Amino acid sequence: MKRRTFGALAAAALAAGVAVPALAQETLTIGAVAPKTGPLAGGAAVTYWPNVQLWAHDVNARGGLQVGDAQYMVEVIEYDDQTNPGETIKAVQRLVSQDEADIVLPPYSTGLNLAAAPIYNRFGLPMVTATATTDQADQLSQQFPNVFFTLGGAQAIVESTVVAMDALRDEGVIGNKLAMVNVADAFGIELMNQAGPAFEAAGYDIVYETSYPLGTQDLSPVMKGAKAAGPDAFIAWSYPPDTFALTEQAIVEGLEVGAFFTAVGTAFPAYQARFGDDAEGVLGIGGVHADGEAFQEYAARHEEVTGAKPDYWASAMVYSSFQVLEEAIREVGSLDNPAIIEFIKGHAFDTVIGVLDFNENNNNTAFWTVGQWQDGVFKGVASTGREGAVPVLAGPDWN
Amino acid sequence: MDVIVTGLLLGGTYALIAMGLNLQYGMARIMNLANGEMLVAGAFAAFWLYGAGQVSPFLTVVLVAPLAFALNWAIYMVFLGPLVKRAKSRGQLEVDAILTTFGLSFVAVGIMLAVFGGDYFSYSYLSFPVALLGGTYGANRLAAFVAAVAICGALYLWLNRSRPGMSIRAIAVAPDSARLVGIDVGRLAALAFALGGAVTATGGALISTFLTLDASTGVLFTLKALVIVIMGGVGDVRGTVVAALMLGLLETFVASVIDPGLTLAAAYLLFVTILLFRPQGLFGRKTA
C-alpha cells in the first residue's frame, strides 16, 4: 500500500516534470561549498558566504544570468564542509551528481581549494579560486588545467612586506631589529620560512623569533618575549583569533614599535570595530584600492545586501572571481565547461578589483599584498601591479 | 614573578572554563560534550549586549546565569533525565550521555550559526594595562581571574557548608545510598547540571572580554575543560582549581622559558603523567 502510494506520487511528479519542462529550466542551480562550522568558519563568514549571496542577488536583480539567447534566474545550494577537506570533496560530488548543479563555485581557503582541485578537475569544472594563496600555481595548473589562481602567493607577500619595512627604515622610522612570530600551521610556517631569509638578506636582524600552536589562549608570553627583545618592528604570520589576541597584548604591554604587522584578519572590519583608533597604522596582509570607485561601490552594495561590510583583502577578489565566471558563461553562450575554461584562459575581465587576466599558468599576477589601517580604512600599500597603492606610514602609537 | 602571575591568570581562565563541566560530570554524572557551546552562548550574550547597549560583561552575567540555569534545567529534564532513569549502570549512562550531548552540541552550533551568524565576535573591554608586582597585565584578565576566584570559592563553600550542597556531594558519591536517606536524587542532579551550565555560561561571558570566538569554537573549550576535570579528579572543586592553575602555570612557564610552540605538548605531557600516577585524578576518589 505504502509502496503504491509512493509509486503514484513519483509518477505524478514525473508527469509534472515532463509537462512543464520550461518552468524547470528557468532557474540555474549554483552550488557553493565552504566552511560554516570548524576552524575556518569565522573567516568564511566574512569573506566567502556574503559574496555568494551578493552575487546571486546581483545576477537576479539584473534579470538573470545570460546564457546564449536565454536569461536564467539563479538559485544557490549551500553546503557546509565543516572545514574538512573530505567533506568538501563529498559536497562537490553531491552538487554535481545529485543536485545537478549547473555551476559550482570554488571552495574557501588555500587548503580546501587545493584539496578539492582534483575533484573539480575530474568533473571538468572551471575553478577560479579567490581565497587560495600558493607559490605553486605553475605546477598546479599543469596538473589541473581547469584551476585558476588570483590571490597570489607567499613569496610575493613576503617580498612586499620587506619593501614596506624598507620604506619605513629609509625614513628612519624603524631600525634593523625585528621581532617575528608565526602560528604553527601550514600557512604560518610557509610564510615564516620565506620571511626569515628574506629579511636577513635585506639586512635586518631578527632579535626574537618563535611560533605558537593554533588556538593558543594566552599570547602574553609571546608578546612579553618580543617586547623584552626590544625590536623596532613586529611581524606576525597569524590567523584571525591570534591576530586579535596579539594586537590586544601588544596594546596591554605597551609595545613600542615603528611598524606592527599581523597577517590574516587584520583586514577584517571586525578588527577596526574592536580596536578603533588603536588599529590606526597597523599593517596587515591584503589591502585593496580603498579609494577607488569600483571598490567603494562594491562595498556599499555588499553592506546593503548582506548587512555586513566586506573585508579589505579577499572579499572583493571572491566577488571578482564570480564575475569572471559569469562573463565567461555569457560570452561563450552556453554552459559548456571546456569552452568556458578556454575563454577564461584567453581573456581579460573587468571586475570590482580591476582588470583580471591570467598568465600561461592560469595565474593572475596582479594582486594586493600589504595594507595598512589609515583613517579608519585598510588601504593597500603594496601590490604586484595593482593601481592605487598609498605610501606606508609610521606604525601605531599606543602610548 | 612575571611568569607566575601570567600563569595564575591563565589558570583562572581555565578554571572558569572547566568548573561548570566538573559540576555536570562530577555531580550530575552527565558527561556533557555540549559544554563548550554553552560557554560560547554566554560569550555571545556578552558580546551582543555590549554591542547593543554598552552593557558591561560583568553585568551581563546577572542576566546570563539565570537564563543558562533555566535552559540547562530544561535540557536535563527533557533529554538527560530519561537517560538517567533508563541507565542500568554508570557506564551505560556515560555512553548514552556522551552520544546525546554530542548530538546536542551540533544542534547548539546550528542554532548559534542561524541566530548569530558565523562571524568572529570580539570586542574591547577593559583592555588597558594594569601594573601589578612589577609587571603589566590586561585588566580584563585580572577581572576574570577575580571572578573565577569568587565563583570557585562560593561553589566550594556552598558544596561543603549548605544542605543542598552536601546533598549534591552525596549523590555524587553514592546516588543509590543517597536515595535511602531521603535525598531527591533526580531533582538535585538536575540542580547540579543546571548550575554547571550557569557557571559555564558565566565563564563564557567573562572570557569573551579577551578571547576572540565564533559559533563553532565550543569544542575547543569542551576538550580543555575535559582535560582539566579529569586531571583534577572528577567531582572535586579543589581538584579542578588546582589542575587549572597547574596547567596555566606550566603553559606560561614553557611559553616564556622554553618555546611557545611546546605549550600543547607540555600540557598533554602533564595530563599523561598525572593519569599514569593518579588515574583517578589529583583529588579523585579511587573507584572500588
TrEMBL record, chain A:
A Pfam family matched in the record: Peripla_BP_6
Domain Leucine-binding protein: 27-374
Transmembrane parts of this sequence: none
Transport listed as a keyword: yes
GO biological process: amino acid transport
Leader sequence residues: 1-24
InterPro entries xref list: BCAA_transport, Leu-bd, Peripla_BP_I
Classification via SUPFAM superfamilies: Periplasmic binding protein-like I (SSF53822)
Top-level taxon of origin: Bacteria
CDD domains: PBP1_ABC_ligand_binding-like
Keywords from the named record: Amino-acid transport, Signal, Transport
Family: Belongs to the leucine-binding protein family.
Protein name as annotated: Amino acid/amide ABC transporter substrate-binding protein (HAAT family)
Species name: Allosediminivita pacifica
UniProt lineage: Bacteria, Pseudomonadati, Pseudomonadota, Alphaproteobacteria, Rhodobacterales
UniProtKB/TrEMBL annotation, chain B:
Record's keyword annotation contains Cell membrane: yes
Main location (coarse class): membrane
Coiled coil in keyword set: no
Cross-referenced Pfam families: BPD_transp_2
GO biological process, one term: amino acid transport
Family matches, as InterPro entries: ABC_transp_permease, BCAA_transport_permease
CDD domains according to UniProt: TM_PBP1_LivH_like (cd06582)
Family statement drawn from the similarity comment of this UniProt entry: Belongs to the binding-protein-dependent transport system permease family. LivHM subfamily.
PANTHER family hit by this protein: AMINO ACID ABC TRANSPORTER PERMEASE PROTEIN, BRANCHED-CHAIN AMINO ACID TRANSPORT SYSTEM PERMEASE PROTEIN LIVH
Protein name listed in UniProt: Amino acid/amide ABC transporter membrane protein 1 (HAAT family)
